[in-house]
Design goal:
Number of strands: 10
Pfam families: CRAL_TRIO (PF00650)
GO molecular function: phosphatidylinositol bisphosphate binding
Shape: globular
Strand content: 5-15%
Protein name: CRAL-TRIO domain-containing protein
Organism: Anopheles coluzzii
Number of domains: 2
Radius of gyration: 19 Å
Structural class: alpha/beta
CATH architecture of the largest domain: 3-Layer(aba) Sandwich
InterPro entries: CRAL-TRIO_dom (IPR001251), CRAL-TRIO_dom_sf (IPR036865), CRAL/TRIO_N_dom (IPR011074), CRAL/TRIO_N_dom_sf (IPR036273)
Strand order of the largest sheet: 5-6-7-8-9
Distance between the termini: 52 Å
Helix content: 40-55%
CATH superfamily of the largest domain: CRAL-TRIO lipid binding domain
Order of helices and strands: EEEHHEHHHHEEHHEHHEHHEHHHE
CATH class of the largest domain: Alpha Beta
Length: about 300
């Protein structure tokens, strides 16, 4: 049975047995391979980082109604990395990110782990313990038969996905290597499809394509049946060309999935060889709750609300 433990630095982790664990990795990467990749793909060199931080601070100082921790390098780099250290691009991303939060208070206000722990308890949103062969975080969304809209609303499901991606955005190694999403649609029924509207689809894709500080490397849709085509038709008009090229439909063809993600990173139900305990959703929610102060601080940033 999976258990929640703490390492020598008091960092919480889910112990899945046989040395496998799920933990948030807040430490900066220092190994030569990661630093070389960061320099090659993100232009991350000491001089560029220093100049970009200065430029981004100057731009943010002019955005008078936006409150963010400009003196916190880690916060700034979280937005600079996915923009390859182009300060203007990072500035525009920060504005889109916080405008989205202002525009959708039902989805973004008080986004604390305690508010969505029931979503994790249902096993709908979770990480795999290993990163893929490129160092990307692997996030699994099980939105088919496991999802019962009477227990978990679409709003809460979206909030739980946001919270998980926020956790990934906090990790320097994920900022560098990005994330891979596995969307498991096994047992998808009309009762789930009926929850989605074109308005929601437009909002969700605006968020993922324009407003997240995350290098989304690929989305792999598995166990998709003909019913999934009805759901995909709602989202298709709002897909950017960039995201279209990163969408892969595998149905139950695990060799197809493993041509993108190594077998050792995938559980046997996806054709892989990763043999460890299942992620306990209840414990994953509890682990996120241990970061309540960090989420509380993150929720204090944003555009100042207009006074009535």
């Amino acid at each position: 049975m999976a258990s929640l433990k703490f390492d020598d630095n008091n960092v919480p982790y889910l112990d899945l047995g046989d040395g496998y664990r799920i933990a948030l990795e807040g430490d900066e990467y220092t190994d030569a391979k990661a630093k070389e990749k960061a320099a090659r793909e993100l232009r991350e060199t000491p001089d560029v980082v220093e100049q970009s931080l200065q430029e981004l601070r100057s731009l943010l100082q002019e955005e008078k109604t936006l409150y963010v921790p400009m003196d916190n390098d880690a916060f700034m780099i979280k937005f600079l990395r996915p923009c390859k250290y182009y300060a203007q691009s990072a500035f525009e991303l920060i504005k889109r990110y916080y405008r989205f939060r202002s525009k959708h208070p039902d989805l973004c206000d008080e986004l604390y782990p305690a508010s969505v722990k029931h979503v994790y308890a249902e096993g709908l949103v979770h990480f795999l313990p290993l990163r893929d062969q490129h160092g990307s975080r692997i996030l699994v969304l099980e939105c088919g038969k496991k999802w019962k809209p009477s227990k978990v609303s679409l709003t809460d499901l979206f909030r739980a996905v946001q919270l998980a991606l926020e956790a990934g955005m906090y990790e320097p190694r994920t900022q560098l290597n990005g994330a891979v999403v596995i969307l498991d649609m096994e047992g998808l029924a009309l009762s789930q499809i009926m929850q989605f509207t074109p308005k929601f689809a437009a909002m969700a894709l605006d968020w993922i394509q324009q407003c997240t500080a995350m290098r989304l490397k690929s989305v792999h849709i598995v166990n998709n049946s003909y019913l999934f085509n009805m759901l995909f038709a709602i989202f298709k008009p709002f897909l950017s060309e960039k995201l279209r090229k990163r969408l892969f439909f595998h149905q139950k063809d695990w060799n197809s999935l493993m041509s993108h993600v190594e077998a050792k990173c995938l559980r046997p139900k996806y054709g892989g060889t990763l043999e460890c305990l299942e992620t306990d959703g209840m414990l994953l929610g509890e682990m996120f709750e241990l970061y309540h102060k960090e989420y509380e601080l993150a929720n204090s940033f944003g555009y100042l609300k207009k006074q009535d």
